[in-house]
Amino acid sequence: MAKLMITRRGSKWQYRFYVGKVDGKQKFISKSGFPTQKEAQSAGTEALYEFESKGVRLKNTNISVSDFCDLWIENQAVFNYKRNTINNYIRIIESRIKPVLGFYKLTDINTLAIQNFINDIKKEGLGKNRTSEILKVLSVMLNYAVDIKYIKTNPCKDVKLPKFSSPENKRYIITKSDINKILYRFKDSRFYIPILIGYYTGFRIGEVFGLTWEDVDFENKTLTVNKALSVEDGGRVFIDTPKTEKSNRTIKVSDFLIQELKKEEIKQKENKLFYGEYYFLQYVDEKQDAASNIVKNIISIQANIPIDKPKINFICIDENGSLTTQNSFKYASRVIRKDMGIKFNFHSLRHTHATKLIEAGANIKEVQLRLGHSSIKTTLDVYTKHTDEAEAELVNLFDNIL
């Protein structure tokens, strides 16, 4: 740290400090003309601090980490992230960050405290992806603190993610035999169509449940993704935009899927007549959130109740018209895993679709477009994982021959 020198020049006072060599000569920053030594000391201290902060003049704040989290949500998150993402970040902040780090003054939080925080999370048994996500949320907030000059640097910068012994969230490949068993098990239930669509298109779960009959082109045999269905913790259902810009897409689908969708459409029309006024219909209720964004909430209500809202015709519904969502599907996932003994989550339908295409020799770029990946790297990761597993199988096969 440079030394601040206060000297008297005639009747006035001056501050001066060394800043290094420029063109081989010693360089100082100085200012004179202060009527008192105290004023020169005060101004010099501030100038030296500003220089050593690389020109960053920090605000004097005693805000806690907990209060700063709230400030970040109100001033940044609601304006820059999708609703689902905001809800996820709030869960992380309330359940993880605030209970451990919330009492710190923002200016006192340091790399060691955050490193210990992350290490303790790992010791609790939380997986690599979730631990990484918690660190990411904290880092994004503290970057904002740097931007608004509440702190000089982000203490998350030098935090290291602990090593994790085994991969998590394994992406399961569903065999043809298993998918046939699954489809047979749910043939007459509300889960048959979403499973079928997921398997034959590779759509994300929100994209599948967000499909409406207007998104189906029976003549050209295509399905279009232009929205996604999302569910908040409290059960509120709303329409969101797809995950990325490239997620908006139209894809060709098989004759079999088209025929099954035609049967489903006819069945729904018959059910609507059968249930009559007790059949459930869905409507869009538009609201404005804190950031002035339009939020499209979904209302499900019986046909005999008048409502002045635009109607929306979802494909994935129950026999009585009630909406099927990601929350509803948790039951099907449990049945598949526990009762049927098949390793499964909805994303495995998407991963299986991608893997089968790659196995068949499909062009990687075409697979990327079909899946709506924003980057071809994501698609290549699927390809790499597939080839790694295939190579391991070949080695095992050869070992068995010997």
TrEMBL record:
Keywords annotated in UniProt: DNA integration, DNA recombination, DNA-binding
PROSITE patterns: CB, TYR_RECOMBINASE
Annotated Core-binding (CB) domain residues: 63-146
GO BP terms: DNA integration; DNA recombination
InterPro entries per the UniProt record, alphabetical: AP2-like_int_N (IPR028259), CB (IPR044068), DNA_brk_join_enz (IPR011010), Integrase-like_cat_sf (IPR013762), Integrase_catalytic (IPR002104), Integrase_recombinase_N (IPR010998), Integrase_SAM-like_N (IPR004107), Tyrosine_recombinase_XerCD (IPR050090)
GO MF entry, a single one: DNA binding
Tyr recombinase domain ranges (all copies): 160-399
One of the Pfam families matching this protein, by short name: Phage_integrase
Keyword DNA-binding: yes
Keyword DNA-binding: yes
Record function comment: Site-specific tyrosine recombinase, which acts by catalyzing the cutting and rejoining of the recombining DNA molecules.
Family: Belongs to the 'phage' integrase family.
Name recorded for this polypeptide: Site-specific recombinase XerD
